[in-house]
Automatic annotation (TrEMBL):
It is a multi-pass membrane protein. The central subunit of the protein translocation channel SecYEG. Consists of two halves formed by TMs 1-5 and 6-10. These two domains form a lateral gate at the front which open onto the bilayer between TMs 2 and 7, and are clamped together by SecE at the back. The channel is closed by both a pore ring composed of hydrophobic SecY resides and a short helix (helix 2A) on the extracellular side of the membrane which forms a plug. The plug probably moves laterally to allow the channel to open. The ring and the pore may move independently. This is Protein translocase subunit SecY. Pfam families: SecY. Signal peptide: none annotated. It comes from the Bacteria. It is found in: Cell membrane; Membrane. The gene is secY. The keyword NAD does not apply. Keywords: Cell membrane, Membrane, Protein transport, Translocation, Transmembrane, Transmembrane helix, Transport.
Length: 418
């Protein structure tokens, strides 16, 4: 491992990329401590004393939401805009055409995604300003508009920061910003555990049990994230002019968790809707219904798992075009041994994808609802150790390591990972 790190430090270009990424992380962390003007942050911090959904959102923003800083919305509007654009690419012919045009088409899609980020960010900022106007010192129209514009500007700056990391740093910038926000909460979590032990709230056995569960979850997430079903593909030999093409074997890697963390985001957004609406409607029966959907209740947990399974199949079906995959394979003379090209190949791939997606959806559901049971088993109620966060951290770390490995292998025979 030390030899691999020395290889990284020897490469000037890679060293500069790593340093640039760390500087961007520092700017992000500094921004989480710049408060929004005209807001009493101490009032908002009272909402984050429990490990509820607000705590989950605060963790993704690196603590910026509980401080109500300029980065309080984090990069969430950009993620939502990207998901919407990805779905529209499937149903809007113009967007689908752009997606097939290479770099120029991707630039157009990226530009629309930026505009969508500003629009969604401003709408979300207005909602947050109205929902938390009890914390605004002078809750007038001007103050609410100022808060909304400040939050939107913070999100746009984070979007720019992420794009700079992607272009000049190492890894995917947007993912790394979320990664940095989650990891930044680790020292505070460890200090909370230490305070619990010192106060006698928990004992060493609880801490040991928590560590065992944490390690088991990390191993489980890595195994599923790396898991894939490899479908063998054989290409027939064909002669073009005086040259012979094809005649080689390869495979199609179908990932177990093809949808990533997107189904969890979808399911969380749907279940947040009743609770959000109840904050603006002061009617007893509405408050009662919203209480059924409160974070961690039995109904919310069951619906959460069901929605995650549904959205996993939905998102996988939208983003993976099995028919096009089979048709392209047929055009290039490829076939799966024992399966006829064309529709039989598409049916076979669809059948395999359906089976492994079931395993992936159950995995996501378990990961998402596991924190409720971890807190009950270890009595660590104030420490959020969520499978969702772990899934993001492990996924981003693996992707970044692969990029570093690729850059190192371009200049050395010996890589970074062994």
């Amino acid at each position: 491992m030390l030899a691999g790190l020395s290889n990284v430090l020897k490469i000037t270009e890679l060293r500069q990329k790593v340093v640039f990424t760390l500087v961007m992380f520092l700017i992000f962390r500094l921004g989480t401590h710049i408060p929004v003007p005209g807001v009493n942050a101490s009032v908002i911090e009272q909402l984050f004393t429990q490990g509820n959904l607000f705590g989950l959102l605060d963790m993704f923003s690196g603590g910026a939401l509980s401080k109500f800083s300029i980065f309080a919305m984090s990069i969430t509007p950009y993620i939502n805009a990207s998901i919407i654009m990805q779905l529209l690419t499937v149903v809007v012919p113009k967007f689908e055409q752009w997606a097939k045009e290479g770099d120029e088409g991707r630039k157009k899609i990226t530009q629309i995604t930026r505009y969508g980020t500003v629009l969604l960010g401003f709408i979300q900022a207005i909602g947050m300003a109205f929902g938390l106007k009890v914390a605004i010192i002078n809750p007038g129209f001007d103050s609410i508009l100022l808060v909304a514009l400040t939050l939107t500007a913070g999100t746009v700056f984070l979007m720019w920061l992420g794009e700079q990391i992607t272009e000049k740093g190492i890894g995917n910038g947007i993912s790394l910003i979320i990664f940095a926000g989650i990891v930044s909460g680790l020292p505070n979590g460890l200090y909370t555990i230490y305070e619990y032990v010192r106060a006698g709230t928990i004992n060493i056995f609880n801490v040991f049990l928590f560590l065992i569960i944490a390690v088991a979850m990390i191993v489980f997430v890595i195994a599923i994230q790396q898991g894939q079903r490899r479908i063998p593909v054989q290409y027939a030999k064909r002669v073009v002019g005086r040259k012979m093409y094809g005649g080689h074997s390869t495979h199609i890697p179908l990932k177990v968790n093809q949808a990533g963390v997107i189904p969890i985001i979808f399911a969380s957004s749907v279940l947040m809707f009743p609770v959000t609406i109840a904050q603006f409607i002061d009617v007893p029966w509405v408050k009662t219904v919203a209480g059924w959907f409160a974070w961690g209740t039995p109904l919310q947990t069951i619906l959460y798992a069901i929605l995650i399974v549904f959205f996993t199949y939905f998102y996988t079906a939208v983003t993976m075009n099995i028919s096009d995959m089979a048709e392209n394979m047929k055009k290039h003379g490829g076939f799966i041994p024992g399966i006829r090209p064309g529709k039989p190949t598409a049916d076979y791939l669809d059948r395999v994808m359906t089976r492994i997606t079931l395993a992936g959806s159950i995995f996501l559901a378990i990961i998402a609802i596991l924190p409720n049971f971890v807190g009950a088993a270890t009595n660590l109620q104030g420490v959020y150790f969520g499978g969702t966060a772990l899934l993001i951290v492990v996924g981003v770390a693996l992707d970044t390591m692969k990029q570093i490995e690729a850059l190192v292998l371009m200049r050395h025979y010996q890589g970074f990972m062994k």
